Amino acid sequence: MAVFIMLLALVAGVLGNEFSILRSPGSVVFRNGNWPIPGERIPDVAALTMGFSVKDDLSWPGLAVGNLFHRPRATIMVMVKGVDKLALPPGNVISYPLENVDLLFLSELQVLHDISSLLSRHKHLAKDHSPDLYSLELAGLDEIGKRYGEDSEQFRDASKILVDALQKFADDMYNLYGGNAVVELVTVKSFDTSLIRKTRTTLEAKQAKNPASPYNLAYKYNFEYSVVFNMVLWIMIGLALAVIITSYNIWNMDPGYDSIIYRMTNQKIRMD
């Protein structure tokens, strides 16, 4: 499967929001264009590129159908805090304007840290048949901007070093999955989340204790299920074959003339 790499640049304010593709396999097709994409549909883009279905149809023309039988094995998203936009080198990068940015999704994708070092030590993690999703948060550039200022030489040098490091990281992850991964980058100036006081009802609290109840999820089998299933299956197959073979042999059996089956009484012999 392929590795798909995307760059998502989220800039505070109404201008500058950007969604970019750093690396993507040939099976994932992104069209060049200036089509804006809502920020809340970025999870749907990531899901569709990996072959998963989404609740609502995505009518965004930037993503083509591609090869349905060759989906990416991983999606990698990198979030950079403290900068509006990175000066990425032109070339294979495809960018789209973003609107209605929803940063809550990005915080929910925080699942792993130090991906490169982990996968370099455990390369078998990238060889399984399950899709992988990694998320990293880089806040060092924000600290440099607060200390030296965003117009300082230190901040510009740090930005350039970060761009080079991200390009290398994207190449490493792309090559690690054999050219079958997606790598995304999100740059966010600040997190402007409104504080909303939410009320809870008794019914809502009851549902929170059992959140899986409305979804009709399948039963969670333990790891010994396949062993027990195979034992029962092959025993049943063996018994069925034994009954069939025994029945066939009995049906075609020739007991011989001296068998009790052909014996007749003396009275029957006299009558004959």
UniProtKB/TrEMBL annotation:
The leader peptide range reads 1-16
Q: Where in this chain does the record put each Renin receptor-like C-terminal transmembrane spanning segment domain? A: 197-272
Provide the GO biological process annotations.
positive regulation of Wnt signaling pathway
The record places domain Renin receptor N-terminal at 100-189
Q: Which InterPro entries match?
A: Renin_r_C, Renin_rcpt, RENR_N
Compartment list = Cell projection, Dendritic spine membrane; Cytoplasmic vesicle, Autophagosome membrane; Cytoplasmic vesicle, Clathrin-coated vesicle membrane; Cytoplasmic vesicle, Secretory vesicle, Synaptic vesicle membrane
Tell whether Endoplasmic reticulum is among the UniProt keywords. Answer: yes
Q: How does it sit in the membrane?
A: Single-pass type I membrane protein
Write out the entry's keywords from A to Z: Cell membrane, Cleavage on pair of basic residues, Endoplasmic reticulum, Membrane, Receptor, Signal, Transmembrane, Transmembrane helix
| Any one annotated GO CC term | external side of plasma membrane
Q: Which GO terms describe its molecular function?
A: signaling receptor activity
**Membrane spanning residue stretches:** 231-251
Instruction: Say yes or no: keyword Membrane present.
Output: yes
Q: What is known about its subunit structure? A: Interacts with renin. Accessory component of the multisubunit proton-transporting vacuolar (V)-ATPase protein pump. Interacts (via N-terminus) with ATP6AP1 (via N-terminus). Interacts with ATP6V0D1; ATP6V0D1 is a V-ATPase complex subunit and the interaction promotes V-ATPase complex assembly. Interacts with TMEM9; TMEM9 is a V-ATPase assembly regulator and the interaction induces the interaction with ATP6V0D1. Interacts with VMA21 (via N-terminus); VMA21 is a V-ATPase accessory component.
Q: What does this protein do?
A: Multifunctional protein which functions as a renin, prorenin cellular receptor and is involved in the assembly of the lysosomal proton-transporting V-type ATPase (V-ATPase) and the acidification of the endo-lysosomal system. May mediate renin-dependent cellular responses by activating ERK1 and ERK2. By increasing the catalytic efficiency of renin in AGT/angiotensinogen conversion to angiotensin I, may also play a role in the renin-angiotensin system (RAS).
Q: What is this protein called?
A: Renin receptor
List the source organism: Cebus imitator
